[in-house]
Amino acid sequence: MHTRRNNNPFLYSCLTLFILIFLSLSSSLAQAGKVREYWIAAEKTDWNYAPTGANQIDLASDLGVWGKTLTYTKYRYIGYTDGSYSHPLPQPEWMGILGPTIRAAVGDTIKIHFLNKTDMPLSMHPHGVMYDKDNEGADGGKGGSIPPGERYTYTWIVDQDAGPGPGDPSSIVWLYHSHVMAEEEVNLGLIGTLIITAAGKAYSDKNPAPRDVDQEFIALYMIFNEENDEESGLKHAINGRIFGNLSGFETRRGQRVRWHLVALGNEVDNHTVHWHGQTVLDHGRRTDVVEIMPASMTSVDMVPRSPGNWLFHCHVNDHMIAGMATRWLVK
């Protein structure tokens, strides 16, 4: 039996075009990200740099001049469950003064519902992600200066350039902070981080954290200037705590741990972050000291090999003396 073939070129062209359009739409849908919503308020609060009142690194010593005054008025970002701003989100103790961690994966859209509950104009300016002028959180756009009591919704796009590069781990860290008068607000404590996971590397659609690590820690190394350069007011802090008063960096031997390291501040904020008892993989380099400077952001991986309660500190001599140290526990 002879079957007649249809050699109509127009029909073949239409069929080919249909297939290409279908494949393109399927690819776009497959790559479409989620909208990640966060409710964050700026609030005025008291902050104690050493809540125990003691030097937890060397119990035989005191806090020196840096213990003269420990509690100051600060401004912080606080995360909430919804737009009522009545139920704060819990944070692990090791986060200290940091604002809530904003997580997303490449392809997602981040929406930040910001409420300024303080007495001064503030904003939220992100690093890394894509935004238009009104969502920059700085420099004259609509979201650049939110008055006390007012709200604003920022929209940030997590495009490919916001995610990990070819030599990066599966998640990387970016800073966010207020940028009306940036130096003043950062020193007040208005600092947080975004963690962006590579496409296809997240746990699930609901959880954008990377699936190839067991734990992630964030450490902000920064000298808060509380008393116009008086030495007693220069708080050499990790996440806003000094002399070992930051607790909660706890893990287990064999865990896959990612450390997100950030710094802000002035020319004195050149830090050499050092772990005792363990090395890290820093973009292909094996080391136990990572250098960070003001507005630096980097992410390194480790697998703890040796149980102990180890020092985690800045290796700059002056910073060590002033209490820029805590401990991390390997069980």
From TrEMBL:
Pfam families for this protein: Cu-oxidase_2 (PF07731), Cu-oxidase_3 (PF07732)
PROSITE patterns: MULTICOPPER_OXIDASE1, MULTICOPPER_OXIDASE2
Ranges where the Plastocyanin-like domain occurs: 97-198, 232-331
Signal peptide limits: 1-32
InterPro entries associated with the record: Cu-oxidase-like_N, Cu-oxidase_C, Cu-oxidase_fam, Cu_oxidase_CS, Cu_oxidase_Cu_BS, Cupredoxin
GO molecular function terms noted in the UniProt entry: copper ion binding; oxidoreductase activity
Keyword annotations from UniProtKB, A to Z: Metal-binding, Oxidoreductase, Signal
Name of the protein this chain belongs to: Multicopper oxidase type 1
